[in-house]
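Slide 14.
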Amino acid sequence: MQLIFNRRVTRRTPGRFRTRVLTEGVVPSLHVEYKKSKVKQYHKEGQALRTETTINDTYDFAIGRALHNLPALREIGFAANRRVLHVDSLSHDCLIGEDQLHAVTSPICVDEQRAAGLRFGDSRVHALMHALCLFALAPTGFRHREFRQQVAQLHGRDAQTYSAGSMTYDLRRLRMHGLIERVPRTHRYRITLMGAQVAMFYARLYTRALRPACSLQPHGSARGQHAFDRLDVALANFLQEVKLVA
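Slide 15: predicted structure.
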């Protein structure tokens, strides 16, 4: 709600807040509700993606009901639509170029400060990337402490064994590679657009492709061999579509 409508939601905020994704028996659609206003996204006649924002009570956004307030309401509606479409595009296409991937995985030097690369396949790096995905949509960013707890949990470690110094080191690596930035005049960080793309690329490729492939035992059973062959064909088709075939 905070991300789409740019409004702070607390325990005292009245109304019901929920997001529904309908997929069974209907045309898939997305419904986001904030107080008496809502955003609906669906496929119009199976040809175009339609996003509608309906504001049923202008006081939800501290705006009066007079006609001269219509431009302000239109801007709120268009801004909500743009945020939803931005999240859609980011989650759909997280591909990064070869140069960008090489830059992230290689050591970097900025103003005589060096930082190690973020190697793909490293369990600690993937814990960082998955944690970034969790905070990608946080409008106020994240703090050192809350990010450290998430990384430790994703890495399968106790927060006490993952020291604050290690977290500072990892945050420095992420910042120098341009994946996060410090919020001015605060002790909070926020993920950059490139950081969101890289984090989702790492998380998706590892979780949906590499880890399942490594867990298969193609020579152990006919079922495993068949699953491995299907994965190989799907990967070959994907590489053909994105023009990455050798």
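Speaker note: The chain is about 45% helix and 15% strand.
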